[in-house]
Write a structure and sequence with these properties.
The chain is mainly alpha-helical and about 100 residues long. The chain has one domain (about 1-90). It contains five helices and no strands. The protein is elongated.
Length: about 100
């Protein structure tokens, strides 16, 4: 459960970083943006689904038991991600001005 909570915090920080750049609250930095996007990519999909095994809710976990009740719906984005072709943007180097 500690690994799951750490992964969720890491993704939340990455999402806030990207949002801050879109909202002009943070200066755009291509390297920081790419690192944040990579964090979300790495922690999402199958990696996220495996952090929520059936029956791992309750106790010290803040995870909603609704995930267990709607497992197929929760896992659907991970399945979809596996069906998509690789993103060409990941294969290029971002150029900084």
């Amino acid at each position: 459960m500690a690994a799951r909570q750490a992964a969720m915090k890491e993704m939340a920080l990455a999402a806030k970083t990207i949002a801050g750049m879109f909202e002009d609250k943070l200066s755009y930095d291509a390297v920081v943006f790419k690192d944040a996007a990579e964090t979300i990519r790495r922690q999402s999909g199958d990696a996220l689904v495996t952090e929520f095994p059936p029956g791992s809710f309750g106790g010290r976990s803040d995870a909603s038991a609704e995930i267990d009740k709607s497992r197929a719906e929760f896992a659907a984005p991970a399945i979809l991600k596996n069906l998509l072709p690789p993103c060409p943007m990941r294969q290029t180097t971002l150029q900084t001005a």
